[in-house]
Each structure stands twice: as structure tokens, then as C-alpha cells.
Amino acid sequence: MDPIHVLAAIVVFVLAFTVYTYNRLVGLRNMADTALANIDTLLQKRFDLVPNLIDTVKAYMKHEQEVLETVTKARTEYLNSSSMKENAAADEKAARAIKTLFAVSENYPELKASQNFMMLQEELVGIENKLAYARQRYNRTVMIINMVVQKFPTNIIARLFNFETREFFAVESGDIRNVPGIEMQGGAKS
Amino acid sequence: MDPIYGRIASNKRKTFFLFLLYAVLFIAIGYFGGIYLGDPYAGIILAVVVFIIIFLISYFGGQSAVTAMAGAKEVSKQQEPFLYNTVEGLSYATGKPMPKVYIIETDVPNAFAAGRNPKNAVVAVTRGLMKRLNRQELEGVLAHEMAHINNYDVLLATVAVVLAGTIVFFAAVVRRMVFFGGLGRGGGRKSGQGQIIALVVLIVLAILAPIFAQLLRFAISRQREYLADATAADFTGYPEGLASALEKITNSQVKDSPIENNALNGLYIVNPAIGARQTNRASALFSTHPPAEERVKRLRAM
């Protein structure tokens, strides 16, 4: 075999591998960005529901002012937050406050029976679920990105096109999913 | 790196191969039908045209055909917030577009997915499933269905269901032609030896076609069910949800239920035809699904 042909074959292979890795990195980056955007939208949606929730609950929970205030405060903090870290802190506080609120609502059978409250509860638990999944998707994507960026030989291509490793999402406020009595459909409770 | 991607590629290859087999069967029926009626080429051309039309219809419309056959109705977020939210949450987990959500109004608990790719897909659950399962269990079942969509199992299942149905129909038409139309024609002409051979082959094909439709059930193999279970556990991070859902669903299947349908049985998460017969070893061999106890055991071991 001609050495020129061997060289040409190697060049073609390297080029093909570079194109493949580049496209893969772009796809992964877009996926991570989409997950982040989803998280943002979900947080926004949750805080949009808070005034509605407070209005519904106020009439029943006269003695639980404290809980209501915590939720409202977290919302203000979220709205005023600028950095990703402040944002995440406010989010965690709100998740905890909403969870407490649902726990307390167990003592108010009239409230629990209210159609409006049931809808809000389903919506908020749904958002919490989606947040957990969007974070999981983000973290998994970041894991793959970091692997491609750090491992040989893809790290050469990543460096060539300025792809960098990313940070994981640390906050996991998924425990709201385990609040008792959250079943909306009246299904069996396990 | 990820074994699941290799499985998806192998699924796509198998799908292509199966379609090729269907095409050959169509052309064979056309050819022998053509010989019998005096013009083999017209028969082949007719078969090819019919195959292409049916394939396109089932590729683009198979999803609506399957949901219509199952009697499923699309629901909005306002109608079923709990179900809708769960599916939407899982679509965040898969990172793929959200499938449409359908409900079948029957008390037998079951679920299936249909569609040609993750962008055009539906998940359907029965009312009985919603009533019996809690959030974690429902999530497990829906994750299993969305895993099928992600692994391109549903493309094979949906298109194959429609194609197999057409072959059964085609075979029935050929049988009728041979017995009624064919006699009159054959009488006017000299019926040569070729025609008799063609007649025999046609009858054989007409008998084989429904068996071929049966083969479809094995194509949607048990391995795919295990793979979808594993993928579902990976999506939710909670295998126990699907495991306990499978136990509940399997114990609630009833014989001759309204969702039992030969063409569709392979699509459901638990075969509706099993009834309480799951323990029977022989029937498990010819099933589209692995026994539920085995699936539950594997899920609990994760």
C-alpha cells in the first residue's frame, strides 16, 4: 500500500472523528441549556402560583400566619435575587415552606376538601416533580459533557473549540414528593 | 459508552428487516394471485403499490389507527391535571418532547404507547389504571411507556400492527377471490397447470399470513420489555414504583376484557390476554411479555 493512501485514510478518519465529536458536544450543550431553561420556567411558574395559594389558604388558616409569611418572603427573595446561588437558596426556602404548608393543611379538613386548594396542591406537587426531573436531566447531561471534555482523545477536540466542563446542580428539594395524602385521584396510598 | 444506545440501533435494524419481510410477503401474494388470474406482472405491481400505500398510511397514521382501535381519547391538562403533570415531568427526565396523553375509559388497568418517533408519540392509560395506582406507581408505568418511545420500540410495534392487519385482510380477500371470482374466470379459460400451482400456493399463503401476524408478537420481544423496565427505573430513579404497579396490574387483568385485541395485545405494558394464566409455563413461552414476577424480581434487584 502506498504511504500516501495510508496518510489520506488517517486524515479522513481524524476529520470524521472531529466532526462527530464537535456535533456531539453541540448537541449536549443545547440539551443542558434546555434543561436549565426548563428549570427557570418551572421556578417562575411556582412563584406565580404563590399569591393564588395564599389567597386560598388565608380564609381557613387564621392561626398559621407564620407559615404564610415564610412563603411570601421566599417569593420576594426569589424576585430580588440576582445570582444563581441566591436564586437557588430562595427556591429551596420556598420548597420547604410550601411543604410545611401542605403538612399543616392536614389539620383543616374544610381546606383540604376545597376544589381550588386541591388543584393548587396538584399543580405545585407537579411542578416539584418536574423540577426534580429537569435537574436530573441537567446533571446527567453535564456528567456526559464533562466526560467528553476531560477524556482522551475527545479532550483535544473540546479544547480546540472551547468547550468547557460545567458545574452540577447541587440543590435537590425533591422531598416534597413524599408528603402524605398528596394523591389527587383518591388512589391507593402506599 | 451507553449500552442503551447500542440497543436502539439494533432495534432500528430489526425494524427494517421486519418491514422487508412484510414486503416480500405482499409481493409473493401479488405474484401468485397474478399468475392465477393470468398476469403475474400486474399482480406484482398491484402488490407493490398497495404495500407502499399501506406502509405510508401506517407510518404516518398508525398512531391514530392504534388509538382508535383501542378506543383511546386525547385529554388536556385541564381534564386530567394529575396524569398530564406526570407525563410532562417524565418528558423533562427523558429530555425529549412530551407525548400526547390519552385515556381509555375502561376499568381494566393497562397502558400503551404508540407513534413513529419521540416527536410524534402518544401514551395511553386506562381509567382503571389511574384509579388503582398512586403517583409513584403511575410514574413507573408511564416511564416504561416513554422508554419504549425513546428506544424506538413503538415504531416497530405501531407500523407492524397495521401491516400485519393488512396482510390478514389481504389473505382473506385472496381466499374469497379464489372461491368466487376465480371459478368464473377459470371456467372461461383453459386452466393450465401453472394456474393450479398458483392456486395451491395462494391457499398456503392465505393460511400462512395470519401466522406471520403472530410472529409479530415475538418481534416485539421480551428483551425489549426488560430493556424498557430498566430504562424506566433509570428515568425515575425509583424501580419500586414500577415493580409494585406491575404486581397490581397483573393481578387485575380479566379474561375477555374490552381492551383485549389480538393485534394490540403486544403493545400494552401487561398483556391483557394473560388473565390469571400467568403462572402457566407453556403459555409464557408464546407470550409477547416476560412473566410479571420475573420483571418485578429484576426491578427489585436494581
Q: What would your notes on this structure say?
A:
Helices cover 75% and strands 0% of the residues of chain A. Chain A is mainly alpha-helical and 190 residues long. In chain A, helix 1 packs antiparallel against helix 5. The longest helix of chain A has 56 residues, at 3-58. Residues 173-190 of chain A have low confidence and may be disordered. With 302 residues, chain B is α+β, with helices and mostly antiparallel strands. Chain B folds into two domains: 3-68 and 155-218; 69-153 and 221-300, 2-Layer Sandwich (Zincin-like). In chain B, 69% of the residues lie in helices and 7% in strands. Chain B is built from eleven helices and four strands. Chain B has helices at residues 3-37, 40-70, 81-94, 127-132, 135-150, 153-188, 193-219, 222-236, 239-251, 281-285, 292-300, and strands spanning 72-74, 100-104, 111-117, 120-126. Chain B has a four-stranded mixed beta sheet, sandwiched between helices. The longest helix of chain B has 36 residues, at 153-188. The A-B interface holds A 31, 34-35, 38, 119, 122-123, 125-126, 129-130, 132-134, 136-137, 141, 147, 177, 182-190 and B 1, 81-82, 85-86, 88-90, 92-95, 130-139, 235, 237, 244, 248.
For this entry, give a set of tags.
heterodimer, A: 190 residues, mainly alpha, 6 helices, disordered C terminus, B: alpha+beta, Zincin-like, 11 helices, 7% strand, elongated
Task: Give me the secondary-structure topology.
The complex is a heterodimer of chains A (190) and B (302).
Chain A: H1 3-58, H2 65-80, H3 84-105, H4 109-113, H5 115-150, H6 154-160
Chain B: H1 3-37, H2 40-70, E1 72-74, H3 81-94, E2 100-104, E3 111-117, E4 120-126, H4 127-132, H5 135-150, H6 153-188, H7 193-219, H8 222-236, H9 239-251, H10 281-285, H11 292-300
